[in-house]
User: Fold this.
Amino acid sequence: MTDHNGHSLDEGGRGITEASGGIGTLTREDFVSDQEVRWCPGCGDYAILAAVQSIMPELGVPREKVVFVSGIGCSSRFPYYMNTYGVHGIHGRAPAIATGIASARPDLQVWVVTGDGDGLSIGGNHLIHALRRNVNLKILLFNNQIYGLTKGQYSPTSEQGKVTKSTPFGSVEQPFNPISLALGAEATFVARTIDVERKHLPKMLRRAAAHRGSAFIEIYQNCNIFNDGAFLALTSKEGRTQNRIYLEHNRPIRFDRDGSKGIRMTGAGHLELVDVSEVGEKELLVHDEHRYDAGLAFALSRLSAGPHGPTPLGVFRQVERPVYGDGMESQLRAAAADQGPGDLAKLLSSGDTWDVD
Amino acid sequence: MAAQAAPPAHIPAERKELPRVVVRFAGDSGDGMQLTGDRFTSVSAAFGNDLVTMPDFPAEIRAPAGSLAGVSAFQIHFSDHDILTPGDQPGVLVAMNPAALKANLGDVMRGGMLILNTDSFDKRNLEKAGFSSNPLDDGSLDSYQVYKIPMTSMTIDSVKGSGASKKEGERSKNMFALGVLSWMYSRPLEPTIEYLGKKFAKKESIAKANVAALKAGHAFGETAELSAFEVKPATLAPGRYRRITGNQALAYGLIAASVQSKLPLFLGSYPITPASDVLHELARYKNFGVRTLQAEDEIAAIGMALGAAFSGHLGITTTSGPGLDLKSETLGLAISLELPLIVIDIQRGGPSTGLPTKTEQSDLLHAMYGRHGEAPLPIVAPYSPASCFWAALESARIALKYMTPVILLSDGYIANGAEPWHIPSVDKLPDISVRFASQPNVGEDFWPYLRDGETLARPWAIPGTAGLEHRVGGLEKADGTGNISYDPDNHQLMTELRQAKIKVIEEDIDPLEFDGSDDARVLVVGWGGTYGTIGEVCRRLRARGRPVARAHLKHLNPMPKNTGEVLRRFEKVIVPELNMGQLSKLIRSEFLIETVSINCVRGLPFSSTELESELEELIP
Assistant:
């Protein structure tokens, strides 16, 4: 079916659009643009770019149906490096621009690339409203806990006490917890991963791509120039073992060497870290990412205030809720069915009219 | 009372014929004066009068009842000939309470008619309005024809049996007032009865009460033998007409632009007075494929419209002054991306929150220059409620043809004002359809900034088009390829190209016309909503033998190509504006021509009497 202008209303707008002819032959290289990548050598952004480019051919979405939208910041250069459609917008506004694209054209797969300054500071309002509306967007928030492009000021995710150029005596501000924020904004898909996670990162990207609605991934991303080692608690050899808590659906939440530690819910509803050998496996919390009530996911997001001790990674929440663009489309369809397609002459002559001879 | 037989109902009393009448309905904001005025307008329009209206309501939704701040008014000027303004001085004032009388009496013509709801002239209301004695009997209204009508109590009597509660019944008193006026000016009741039936379809008792009050008011006028008048239909060009407000005409114009461009309409908007009605109106027309999105803020609203434009839709955002401030950065992005976008600013009194419900023309320089960097864009201004239809189509035509954001500058006066509209024939509307890029344009490559030689517009390739994948952004880009470029010469070139692209539009718009006697040595130049008043005043001056010409700019950037030539024909150029001289500044800087400014920022349109006397002094 088409609207009065001949535009197709039939595109399903699924997270993964059915492949058209020849899609299967695409490779990672097909998604690499001819532009020279200009991040600092050693930046975590390279790994994320590589991961995104590598999963794109698997998604079965034709290249011309993919749009990358960004704001301002180091991460926001991303669209230039993807050989798809792209908009490098202005600071903080990527979710708004992307909402326009995704609701005008449900047939497209729209990705938003943002950072902790772009997405949580200047653009915080657009981010929470995109999540609340459940616009069909894949939102990648590169969290490096610093302003990189402006050369090293504290960001809304920098820890209290952080000494930067703009906080020579240490930041006195409480940082945001991006996962808690996204859950509070009613996000239907919320996940966390790390730039150096060669398997987990692509896995999260695939999960986000498959989700219908707003998918939010916080990616811990190392800025080796202005905030090097911010995630060492999770990336050092020791930290990797001790502090990464992988959330897996329907599985008891265990971590550390051989899953020796776990998470238990106390009678008062708090989560606590326990030794599995002491409490027994039956006591452990079983992760349920599809639980509609976001309370437990929220509690998990509060386990660590920052990436310093044991920190959950993976999908915190994945639930189904009506998708923004779909609602809009179905209203258009219903109106066209009820009232017939728009007739301009009839509209202009509606209401009280009179003739002058 | 003297025994005088009332004339039988079917024989109309003798009616005095009048060429034109100005009526103002005034009451508390809860008294339904806007609705009353609106209904009177509707039947007058259907009757065939020419008319111009001006609503005037407080910014507060409900200021304290009976207070001066809470007075809401609606003025209608209707006539048997072509008129241009809502009239300066009402000849008739309907005042539902003392505050309404107090707030409006100063404007009423001496000797004019006052129709007063005596029930509301009690001690408390008189005090609230600041009367120290009761004007009904202290002689202060002796120079007017005063009709003292206990409208509230007569309404309550008339609605008995409707099933409505006393309170609901009492609220029908505005319909009683409408009934009285309908008798006086022989307006039919039927369209309003039909309207009330529809409006209160779910509350039959309220519909009945309103109809009863309307009829009772009419019967009262007839039996009390109030003066009766007749204003014959105006001679208008043949065709089909309807009444239209500026905001409604804008909405229709945007839908017409969508149909004529074959692009789906996408409106991103954040509620703001006096622009919200365009959002409300467009939100109704989903069967035209119209998408409306109420954004989280003004910045998101324009961002969404821009995203939709990138995707191949007719992207539009509507706002008023404070919202335009917030949209500035995204406008700069749209200029850099070279995407079509329509930004509609319904101007209101500023700065800051200013006067949300009052009119002003003070955003012209903001529209011209209110962005960082060299960021030119076209500006189109409607000049009357009905012309908003044209302005919307014209803005879309320019935006799509030249791949540029366009600002449409309306104002509160024309947005809320109404006039009869000669409904255009759909097949005569311009075809503004676009051709999206479908093929690579340099060998096998697609260059998003390879320009059309004539319009300098870049190609519009929308997502979904295989082989044309490209990136656009706010960083300076190389002409042609669109790749990021920091090259000094390229930035110079791009800046010049963006400027030339707007300048070239002057070849593609109507030349500036002026009218006036051949011996006119003075030109009055205006723009926007002052069109009617300036026209009326110049008409009067000419009738009195004063040689004056007038011209009205509908494109403010670029101005028509012959603007300088027209201005230079006259010895004196006078620019009346509802701001402190913004068009005047533009003319001076563009053409090095001396101008004389007449400025007024009272939140109201020019008073034609005042403008006339100011012009009189300036014409040699």
User: Anything to note?
Assistant: The first helix of chain B runs from residue 33 to 47.
